[in-house]
User: Fold these one by one.
Assistant:
Number 1:
Amino acid sequence: MKNYDEWAHVFKLDPNKEITDEALEAVCESGTDAIIVGGTDNVTLDNTLSLFARIRRFPVTCALEVSDLEAITPGFDYYLIPSVMNSQHVSWVIGHHHKAVKEYGEIINWQELLLEGYCVLNGEARVANHANAQTDLDIEDVVAYARLAEHMYRYPFFYLEYSGKKGPIDVVKRASAVLEKTKLIYGGGIKNAADASEIAAYADVVVVGNGLYENLKEALKTVEAVKEHKCR
Amino acid sequence: MKNYDEWAHVFKLDPNKEITDEALEAVCESGTDAIIVGGTDNVTLDNTLSLFARIRRFPVTCALEVSDLEAITPGFDYYLIPSVMNSQHVSWVIGHHHKAVKEYGEIINWQELLLEGYCVLNGEARVANHANAQTDLDIEDVVAYARLAEHMYRYPFFYLEYSGKKGPIDVVKRASAVLEKTKLIYGGGIKNAADASEIAAYADVVVVGNGLYENLKEALKTVEAVKEHKCR
């Protein structure tokens, strides 16, 4: 198992999307640091378990990004808990956590939980609407969220989420500059080695999600691109 | 200066309330572990500075509980930052923090900041209305907030706020039972030694606020009552 603070590249697989055994094998054996299982729509216990069982055949680190209380199941190496810092509704900042802990507080293994301070920045993405995110932010707003994540809340992760399109590199750069202990995750629009390499210059962790469903071959090249960057 | 994790008794002074020099001296020399400066209404830079300057003549630890961005001033030993965990509006959970850090992020000394996970429980109190708190909670809700504060957010403090009336001892007891590293602060309706002693059996820190404006002599006796309890 690869410890979360050593991650540089991760693939994010959506339980609600189809993936062939061959493609899944290529993803799991790609040399990526971890697979995150997570999605926005129709994440159920059934499709989560089904995907999890297929991934578990490979020795790759596997984390569940918890989006639905009903879809939590034991056995993952980590449980990533998003807090949407720029949501306009308390349920996405703390409410879902409270509900989960009220129900499962006594049996949770807290060591496996990792908080992600999300900053959702693509207003056209499903997740922005779903989580009622205020995406009309300037770069100083984002920097302030990064500082909150690092110093005030001491989250393990700060997650710049552009979901579906690539965000401006300046935002990644500025957020990176104020983070030390908190790891910067970047997700959104990474489809090939060049995309990944550009982001890896600043983000600690590059997430490749949709890209692998669109062009697997190109998506697989992001692993090497990120690793090369980190080994320089 | 007394480190925050050694506090057992604190007095909370409201910048918007009058206190004579004699009373202030008695409070500061009472043996309490710290004075918290904070209030809900009409906290201004002027009245905060004025109270602070008077307290600083004494060698007691002094913390500012930040409620208004305009009333922040350097020189306090600690800055307590409330996050109202059961607020129904994001501004009380994270919004005010974001605004403050956007403005002052570069000059903040993060070592002096202490997060307080507030659970505001007296629906009739000004603060509940002000912070739009959902006070209709059962004991399991409160326990879940305590667990969130301890394990998920790792706040230094979890604050049971009954502001103006005494809360049920069972709530204090149950919250206390799930907290280890996070210190349990209790505030609300503590007017005399008996009140303080009862709460000190479970809370790490007993706050005496309004009581000292109502009957100073009785309020001062709470210091000894808490200390006695902790030394048993």
Number 2:
Amino acid sequence: MGSRANGAAAERLTSTSNGRGPVDKEVDFANYFCTYAFLYHQKEMLSDRVRMDAYYNSVFQNKHHFIGKTVLDVGTGSGILAIWSAQAGAKKVYAVEATKMAEHARALVKSNNLQDVVEVIEGSIEDITLPEKVDVIISEWMGYFLLRESMFDSVICARDRWLKPNGVMYPSHARMWLAPIRSGLSDHKMEDYEGAMDDWQGFLKETEAYYGVNMSVLTKPFSEEQKKYYLQTSLWNSLHPNQVVGNPAILKEIDCSKVTVEDILKVEASISSLVTKEETRLCGFGGWFDVHFKGSEENPAECDVELTTAPSQDDGTHWGQQVFLLQPPVHVNEGDEILVNFSMTRADDNHRLMKVDLGHSIKQSSGKMLPRVENKFFIE
Amino acid sequence: MGSRANGAAAERLTSTSNGRGPVDKEVDFANYFCTYAFLYHQKEMLSDRVRMDAYYNSVFQNKHHFIGKTVLDVGTGSGILAIWSAQAGAKKVYAVEATKMAEHARALVKSNNLQDVVEVIEGSIEDITLPEKVDVIISEWMGYFLLRESMFDSVICARDRWLKPNGVMYPSHARMWLAPIRSGLSDHKMEDYEGAMDDWQGFLKETEAYYGVNMSVLTKPFSEEQKKYYLQTSLWNSLHPNQVVGNPAILKEIDCSKVTVEDILKVEASISSLVTKEETRLCGFGGWFDVHFKGSEENPAECDVELTTAPSQDDGTHWGQQVFLLQPPVHVNEGDEILVNFSMTRADDNHRLMKVDLGHSIKQSSGKMLPRVENKFFIE
């Protein structure tokens, strides 16, 4: 950031992308990486007990994958996964981190007496060189709704460059889920939007009266901007299980040992969800993910571990769920079928953010089909 | 942002800087410009009555500067200053805007029937070409505490490239002010900081107990990060005049027709402020600015207009003031003299942000000198 001399342009580009070409590294840093350089942010993730327990258990209940083996931790952050891998018996752990957090990881490794096993490398996984291929790649790469941040591209790159042919991915599998939900947020956001538009009307009057400028030509773009902000941007929320009003359905299944970046550029699914609650409101859809640590087919885990971010009363995670709100909410009944066409791709101007086309129709239990509704959303 | 082919590196750099070299334009956009592309943000500024009144009056009470003249509006945003300039009688107005807001400015100009006078140009003022030099440069470039955002560099560039020798700057002058203040924020921020450190202690215990990793080596960097965040980062606040406990003093005076970028890379001043309130607490310092529209020496305004962002009961602005908090607050009395050495430069990694060295000592009315205290602050 800031001043940089006219260097070789090639070094400034990463290979992560939205399928359209390379990304400028400094822009990527300004937009994305910089948050991870803060200890406060690392602490938030380290304080997520569900997340920590899942990774801890996946490693220590599967020591056979680690004892005497070489491990690569992609995006090591504070170094926690690398440290656990070493404590579980790894012979050598390469812990790669793109931000200055790598310095803290190095200090943490040393103060836990693991510097002979864990080597912290500051750099992008796409650029750095390792002296050898590894038996295990471990990484906590999941963003909101699994793919926000597109960090998995980097894990795939690491796998293709550095994993031995029979190597194991931690986690091994990932799934994206969607379910119809009820939520007071629909009403709140509509109130916020309408409030913003009322305020705009007052603003128009004042600007004309006091300053002699008619700004009504901006009403349409302003309203589109506010609509996008209040109504079309997915929200972080920690849903209660009672808010899920129909059977959740799988949108995407990923085998981390085989998936390519091309496979995840687009998430497209047609799903169906039976409403399970009597007389409720369909206010939108909640999206979340789970990952599993099953090892590989040739070299399975002894103890499968699941990390789920599904709505939970007591076991919520810092990921929450992503909520896509419908305006207006729709009354639905037990036995109604909600048919959804879901399509998610990367944002045009930032490969780490997403845009969603979500169309749904409702087949009431009587057999009557309500008209199809199409909505666009933005995962920002 | 996002994908960009390997183009000519020179086009990607701006000349704005922290005195250390050119800045990558896409990074600058990701870090800075992007907020200004939102109508919501423009509306916030357009709704600031003090700001709007000052610029409106400066133009319409000084029509002699505009009638039949050519004008350049640097960073036109929605186009408001350009529109007023045209309405005040300008023959031609060039309205330059770096973001897509330029499209809205163009629409606004057209819907107010001024497209024959106002030409909106989308681009950086450092790059674009005008067909002629101008009589007036008008711009609303002031950031928090005047210089945050370093937009004035762009205005200076515009002046040096495009202002006729006897041209006029709107505004013509600017001043930075500092005053000792009292504020409950000192206590709040210290509580927040101590809370974060207490929480950290609990986190350390849990991480060792549950996960077998000793993170105490991170306590020092964590505490420095939290200290910077809670105690050393200047705050936006809207101060009440009663919170000003001593005479405000001028830190910097700028003649917009003569100042260079070099002149504003560093703001350095030694000031003295007499405490004007009986038995109060010195909790920190408040910084603000004013600008004046005086025209030029050869071609003065008929009606001087002032825009001040000093603490005010009724005439606050969206700029508020910037507050630099002291820990702990100090008891002071009417007649005590607060001596301040103030030094502000641009942040190393982002020329649009600032770092401040603020040393102060108190000479009590009895004559006794309290020891000097040095503090660092960050304007983020």
